[in-house]
Write a structure and sequence with these properties.
The protein is an alpha/beta fold. Helix content is about 25%, strand content about 25%. The longest helix is centred in the C-terminal third of the chain and has 14 residues. InterPro entries: 4pyrrol_Mease (IPR000878), 4pyrrol_Methylase_sf (IPR035996), 4pyrrole_Mease_sub1 (IPR014777), CbiE (IPR012818), Cbl_synth_CobL (IPR006365), Cbl_synth_MTase_CbiT (IPR014008), Cobalamin_biosynth_MTase (IPR050714), SAM-dependent_MTases_sf (IPR029063).
Length: about 375
């Protein structure tokens, strides 16, 4: 049951009847306090997920109502319950969501507004959605979120963005605080808030092929043109998982993750220094959930979840392991720059088929008083659909 910020007064009569018919109410302490009924009230423990099955087993056979804020399926407990018990066993009764209320206060249409949740997540997630003129509704984790968000915006060159913090939306204590990211100095406010962001800053495309300068690296990076070619063949699909093996700067896994907010990636890198650099790059480019595994392939691959796609940018000794791990229908792309590693790919092409190409990239550069071509190392690329 979704409960609005004004509690019992904001609930419809049918919603009140449902709550009054319950024998036990689960929910956060704030929601439970908003409902004046005599049912047994059980506040969620912390951490919640490990205790969830035990709570429901303890009250098996009773009529249970779970209270949530607004829309229970918007970064809420409803999603967890549906995944655990199945949609056929959970009935969701939503109230007006905080996102709908925020858009109403700002006068923003649904189709021109992107929602980013940082509830229990890194505030760096917002970086992926930044674009000149974009309108974002950020679901806050707590009262500190607006200040953290302002810091991230300034660091990304979006200091001119306007922030509107909307607290206790729909309740009697609703409040609005405004300012620009560049000079945000408001004190910590109510923990129940969302932030509307009117973005002003430089463009950074979401299509593969970001400039190499967008990444912190030590030279071990899949360069822009080669990265775009690899990602075109890896073919990111929403919600799929990529292994980026021998990740270097993490550029392929990061661009895979930026292609859709549901995409997942695991960057495998044996150098601890580079692994830390990958995480910094992932934060800065808006995909902080990218998982970094430090260790040598193929040994560290054994316990990883089954990938939908694999990029092998270094350490072709793991190629057969990656092929075996790949699910049917999955894609693999591998690069080689030495004669020895090129032979590994040639052998793989002979055994499995796929596509084998060589990519030579040259850049125009000054040559005395003229302009000449400076070639980069030619790269052999093998791509394969399992």
């Amino acid at each position: 049951m979704g409960v609005p910020a004004d509690g019992w007064a904001g609930l419809t009569e049918p919603a009140r009847a449902e709550i009054m018919a319950a024998e036990v109410l689960f929910g956060g302490r704030r929601q439970l306090d908003l409902v004046p009924v005599d049912a047994d009230k059980v506040a969620w423990p912390s951490p919640l997920l490990p205790a969830l099955d035990g709570l429901f087993a303890e009250h098996a056979g009773r009529r249970i109502c779970v209270l949530a804020s607004g829309d229970p399926l918007l970064s809420g407990i409803g999603t967890t319950l549906v995944r655990r018990f199945g949609a056929e066993n959970v009935r969701i009764v939503p109230a007006v969501s905080s996102v709908a209320l925020a858009r109403a206060r700002m006068g923003w249409s649904a189709e021109e507004t992107e929602v980013v949740s940082v509830v229990g997540r890194s505030v760096h997630r917002v970086s992926r959605a930044l674009a000149p003129g974009a309108r974002l509704v950020v679901l806050s984790s707590d009262g500190d979120t607006p200040a953290k968000l302002a810091s991230v915006l300034v660091a990304r060159g979006y200091g001119e963005s306007k922030l509107t913090v909307l607290e206790q939306l729909g309740g009697p204590a609703e409040r609005r605080v405004e300012g620009f990211a560049r000079d945000w100095s408001h004190p910590v406010g109510d923990p129940l808030n969302v932030v509307a962001v009117e973005c002003a800053g430089p463009a950074l495309p979401t299509l593969p092929g970001l400039p190499d300068e967008a990444f912190e690296h030590d030279g071990q990076i899949t360069k822009r043109d080669l990265r775009a070619s690899a990602l075109a063949r890896l073919a990111p699909v929403a919600g799929e998982l990529l292994w980026d093996v021998g990740a270097g700067a993490g550029s392929v896994g990061i661009e895979w993750s930026r292609a859709h907010p549901a995409n997942r990636a695991i960057a495998v890198e044996r150098s601890p220094e580079r692994a830390e650099r990958i995480q910094r790059n992932a934060d800065r480019l808006g995909v902080p959930e990218l998982r970094v595994v430090t260790g040598a392939a193929p040994e560290v691959l054994a316990d990883l979840p089954t990938p939908d796609a694999v990029f092998v940018g270094g350490g072709l000794a793991s190629l057969d392991v990656c092929l075996d791990a790949l699910r049917p229908g999955g894609r693999l792309v591998a690069h080689a720059v030495t004669l020895e590693s090129e032979q590994v790919l040639a052998n793989a092409y002979q055994r499995h088929g796929g596509e084998l190409i060589r990519i030579a990239v040259e850049h125009a550069a000054p040559l005395g008083g003229f302009t000449g071509w400076t070639p980069a190392r030619t790269v052999t690329q093998w791509s394969f659909l399992k």
